[in-house]
Amino acid sequence: MKTRVVLSITVLLVQVASGAEAQGPPAVPTPADVKPGSITGEDVPYPHPVSYLRLTLYDQDLRLAYMDVPPLGPPNGRTVVLLHGNNFAGFYFGGPIEALRKEGFRVVVPDQIGYGRSSKPFIPYNFHDMARNTRQLLESLKIARAMVVGHSMGGMLAVRFATQYPAMTERLVLYNPIGLVDPRFERPWESTDELYKRNLAATYQTTRAAILRYVAHNPAAWNAEFEKYTRIRYSWTLSAEWPRLAMVQALLTQVQYLDQVTDDWEHITAPTLVLGGADDSLPGSPAVFRERTRVLAERIPGNRGRVHLIAGLGHVPHLEAPEKTYPPLVAFLKEGLSAEAAAGAQPGTPPRYEADVNWPKPLPNRWVLGGLGGTCVDAQGHVFILNRQDVLEGELNTGRLAPPVIEFDPDGNVVNAWGDPTLLDPRLHSCHVDGDNNIWIASAPSGMVQKYTHDGSRLLLQIGKKGVVDSSDGTVKGKPLNSNAPIFFMPSSIFVDRQNGDVYVSDGESAGGNRRVAVFDAGGRFLRQWQPEGLETVHCMTIGKDGLVYVCDRNGSRIQVFDKTGVLRRSIPVPWTPVTPSSDLRPFGGSAVAVDFSPDERLIFVINQNNAQIEMIDRPSGTVVGSFGRSGTFPGQFNQPHGIAVDARGNVYIAENRGRRIHKFSVARGR
Question: Looking at per-residue confidence, does 478 or 75 come out higher?
Fold first, then answer.
């Protein structure tokens, strides 16, 4: 199944030029109530919670800020990603976010590196890196395909993204784009040092003049929103860190001169809408803007480009007249839904999976694996397995005991391995990669969960105490207590909420112990818990993009779905039937043992140990639509599958306990 996403990319890069000519409201005195602002935007209100993706660029450890906002009401399976402009950051997209959410879109809004709450490094900024960083963000969120909408200089970035990653780009919207001609033949080069000096000299009046250009067509269009963003930008110039940001902005200003995209237009393959205010005067006059957008659309091959300009609006239409701006944007994006239906697409029809017999590569150093407790995947597509090291007597005569945690790259090569037995519990059960690329590990039975750096070199956090369980006597023989405290009996799964950093732990790996979902803050302090009714075990748990908590009822053959406070929302059956009929129906491990989602979350993948296969469940309807795998020892066959993970490209990884193998399943070619 293909993942559909709407990626809305917007980077508005406009110089803050001293003495800029602009017609607009009369000049006003410099406001005395503006305080120095943080150049990383911590004091700027964002319309939704902000998360971070860790990146390494030019040997610098950076963070990319973003908002990931779920749809309101029934999701349509697509995602809108909004990328901000140079005079702004993701904070000014509150209106577009709500308009798109109401239509069923998921909305992802990153601040590009150098903007908003993202890092401000001194690097050679370019559209290639911006596009690649955006792709990494989407992959970390398991988003495989996108409709791209780019505003102003973000239109240039949107073009670069669409041509670099055409398989990820379903639709393209260029919203009041700039870069409609090669700037090298319109104006001479201005050095970065000159730009830096000009930025350092910025005042409230020059900052306001730069933004006033957006309403040069109609000075009366200046409103409180434009004034608010002027004050935010002016506050940065009062900061002690302004010299750093002034240089970063100078470097960013050069991107549109050095990295033009006009030659990319002929390589766009997605249906494209050029959208915006017809009276945008940034290119010199509205007439010039209209003519250049016409040429842009004509140069997109296959008659895939068209223009929709809104009379009376300028460079930032959604701040002037949102009621006129959103309908054509939403209509074009929703055409993608109609086009799929017209083509006879059946979202409920599952893909066909086949085992990749060349993955992984042979283990180094004659390593011998024990049973595999679990597996997880990071944003770069690296796969981690948990090795329980429970080898059989005599096996180490032929090899060496493999480390507890082993990391594979996407090609199946071992790239790292780690694990201190004095810190880890031997019966490793599951792992989770959080938004900061840290590795969380749950072991059962154990009284703890642990958070490690990505390379395993440091233990960052431990919730609970190793060897002390939540029971009447502190051992697994005692009575389970389900305490309102940071202690566990048999923790089975972990998931870190990317919205607020809360840590969800399912504590109930086996019958006879705790049976609950416990929630902790990012520092490990207990917040709340709930005990799902009718469950003997709570063997697995994850959180979907819909914000709901999916809990495995291993022996009850179902997945229970809760909100984050523990209110039951629905129950999804995971039925099973023995291959050989019997009057004595005895489950062999359970039919809901571990769970993960396809990148677009239309499918739920569930390990069914009873039938030694992976069930594919259509999430909206809750019906089983397919399966793959069977009992056996050949590739693609299982001996007690126990852990599951799905990467951003839809590959499914299965860890076997008794079989002691990790499998990779990919969508079969031709599907």
Answer: 478
pLDDT over threshold 70, residue 22 = no
Report the distance separating Cα 579 and Cα 353, nearest Å. 21
pLDDT tens for each residue of 345-360 = 444 467 889 999 999 9
Secondary structure in 3-state letters for 179-224? CCCCHHHCCCCCCHHHHHHHHHCCCHHHHHHHHHHHHCCCHHHCCH
Q: Are 489 and 472 in contact (CB under 8 A)?
A: no
Q: Is the pTM of this model over 0.70?
A: no
Residues forming beta bridges with residue 416, ordered by sequence position: 407
H/E run at residue 606? strand 603-608
Q: Which letter, b or e, does each residue of 14-45 get, where b requires 16 or more Cβ atoms within 10 Å of its Cβ? A: bbbbbebebebeeeeeeeeeeeebebbbeebe
Structure tokens at 350: 């599952």
Give domain limits for the chain.
6-12+44-189+264-342, 360-667
Q: Is-contact 499 50, C-beta < 8 A?
A: no
Q: Which fold has domain 6-12+44-189+264-342?
A: Rossmann fold (3.40.50)
- Token pair, residue 270, equals 């997605």
Mention the CATH class of domain 360-667. Answer: mainly beta
Round to whole Å and give the CA distance between 159 and 155: 6
Phi-psi sector, 59: left (phi>0), alpha (psi -120 to 50), beta: left
